[in-house]
Specification:
Layout lengths: L2 H5 L3 H27 L2 H15 L1 H5 L3 H12 L1 H11 L9 H53 L5
């Protein structure tokens, strides 16, 4: 196992980092507004940055189509060669039932794995965007409340 493969994060870890970054920016904006700048608008800015960072979650997911295609290539190189000839409109012999069965099993298995990853991505995007949007919408009120509680002015 190489160092690069050990450092590579799983999809779930990447999604959790995206959620964490969104929360950190949202809460950080509120903290900065309340204790550093004493500006209520900074509470909103942290939420806006959190929402922007939530969009990074879209880019954490690896290419679905490419992954399915690669799994077909790895599963049966002879079958992959026939598929490539079909794509290039080169005449080929017909597929056998066994080849079609292997192809369908491989594609369906890969789609099942990808649908689980899609569900995880949707959850991560939901939590990151909801938390950041709430901070964006109400961060100024939270900062104002904190400043008022600390007997400062906003």
């Amino acid at each position: 196992m190489t160092l690069r493969s050990r450092l590579r994060m799983s999809q779930s870890q990447l999604y959790n980092c995206g959620i964490g970054l969104s929360i950190l920016l949202s809460v950080g904006g509120i903290w900065y507004g309340a204790f550093v700048s004493k500006d209520c608008a900074d509470g909103e800015r942290g939420g806006a940055l959190g929402v922007a960072s939530a969009f990074l979650i879209f880019f954490f997911r690896r290419n679905f189509g490419e992954r399915v295609y690669r799994s077909i290539l790895e599963m049966n190189p002879a079958l992959a060669e026939k598929i490539q000839k079909l794509a290039a409109r080169i005449p080929i012999t017909t597929f056998s039932n066994e080849e079609l069965t292997q192809l369908l099993i491989g594609i369906l298995g890969r789609i099942n794995v990808e649908s689980d990853e899609q569900r995880n991505q949707n959850r991560a995007l939901f939590w990151a965007s909801v938390i950041a949007t709430l901070a964006w919408g109400f961060g100024d009120l939270i900062v104002q409340r904190i400043i008022h509680t600390c007997h400062c002015s906003c």
